[in-house]
Description:
The chain is an alpha/beta fold. It is built from six helices and seven strands; from the N terminus they run βαβαββαββαβαα. A hairpin with a 5-residue loop joins strand 5 and strand 6 (117-128). The radius of gyration is 17 Å and the shape is elongated.
Amino acid sequence: xxxxxxxxxxxxxxxxxxxxxxxxxxxxIPADIDExxxxxxxxxxxxMRMAYTKAIKVAESxxxxxxxxxxxxxxxxxxxxxxxxxxxxxxxxxxxxxGRRHKVLGGVCLLTPGGGKGLxxxxxxxxxxRLTEEEIKRYLASMxxxxxxxxxxxxxxxxTFVSYISGxxxxxxxxxxxxxxxxxxxxxxxxxx
Length: 193
């Protein structure tokens, strides 16, 4: 359905999600960028800037290709929960999310060779039930948290933690499919959406 593009991401979840809508990239080229947040930068602006910057970075060496890039962040209160690398961080994040609502913010960018640009922002609200010590321990042992924003994968065992969700489920997994399909259908060379 959607062809002839490069995915600027190394996320296997994004590849799986794209396949659900018949979008198979010609190439996968992860973008190596500085992901630091600017001082006082609003979260919406940050996630959109990350998606756009990733797309631009890959477009520099692939000027004749359409480039799809995305970014996903999790925020709980005033805290940003980035991709988790250590079990101590995962445990701290799970305890923070336990019994609370949090936001999953997604930015998606599609660039075309003729200068077309499309950007979409998506916000999903998720609430976790209050987690028991045993559930936290079991989840940490599963290693599902590794490399995940917010320290969880909603498409795995953490689905049993979710008592409420409002918005795009696929955004929480890693790519909002409705908005991505709109970009593929609406961004032409020299236009923006």
